[in-house]
Structure formats: C-alpha cells, structure tokens
Write a structure and sequence with these properties.
mainly alpha, 3-stranded antiparallel sheet, 3 strands, 11% strand, globular
Length: 134
C-alpha cells in the first residue's frame, strides 16, 4: 500500500474521535498483514477506515451500544476475510491466518486469491476483536 502515512494519520484521527487511540497498534498491524492484497480489488485501509467511521455514526445515534461490540461485529463482516494469503514452499500450500501468524510470514511474497467464505471464521475475528480492541 502506498498511502501508509495518510492511513496512519486517518486511523489515529478516527480512533481519537472514538476515544480508542490504544487500538492504533492492533489495527495498523492487522492492515499491514493484508498489504499484498490487489489494490485494484480491495483497499484494506479504506475498508478499516470506513468501518470505523460507520461505527462512529452508529454510536453517535445510540451511545448505549459499546463501541468495541460494534467494531467486533463490523470487523468480522469485512470482505478482507474472503482473501487467502498463501505461502507456497516446495509445492506445499500454507494458508496464513492474519490474526495469529507471525508478522515475518507476511513480509515474503505470497500467493493471494479470493474465496467464497471467510478465513478465519467471523466468530474467530469477533473473539480477536474482543481481546485486542477493548
């Protein structure tokens, strides 16, 4: 992705509006793991920022809903989870889980392709969000 400084500034801005600046590292790290997605197909930065702005709109209308709850639901529904990041070594395919695979695995060239279902599953993404975005 080419507009990382702009993304980071925009992310910090919306997180400040939500009062969740401590989410900066987990969300920026997550976005970085999807950096090899084809930008012509999907933009992880735009996906995350749009999701956070929509959460802000909902929370402005109903402040009784916890922001972390809304983010867990909306994050798990993003299209990014239908993309597979695959490391091919000696003919073996290893699917990388953006939530648990070490960062170093994402720095090497990967095969990327779209799938019909989410990976990891939405409930796993929600659990990650509840643990990392409080």
């Amino acid at each position: 992705m080419t507009d990382s400084p702009t993304f980071e500034a925009s992310l910090l801005h919306i997180l400040g509006l939500l009062g969740k600046q401590d989410w900066m590292e987990p969300l920026a790290t997550l976005a970085d793991r999807f950096r090899q997605l084809p930008e012509t197909e999907i933009n992880i930065h735009a996906e995350l920022l749009n999701m956070l702005y929509s959460v802000r709109e909902v929370s402005a209308q109903d402040s009784s809903l916890p922001v972390s709850y809304l983010v867990a639901i909306k994050l798990s529904a993003l299209d990014i989870w239908c993309w597979r990041l695959v490391r091919v070594t000696d003919g073996h395919h290893k699917y990388l889980d953006p939530l648990t695979t070490p960062e170093a695995e994402f720095s090497l060239p990967l095969d990327v392709h779209q799938a019909a279902s989410a990976f990891p599953a939405p409930d796993v993404v929600k659990r990650w969000a509840r643990e990392h975005l409080r």
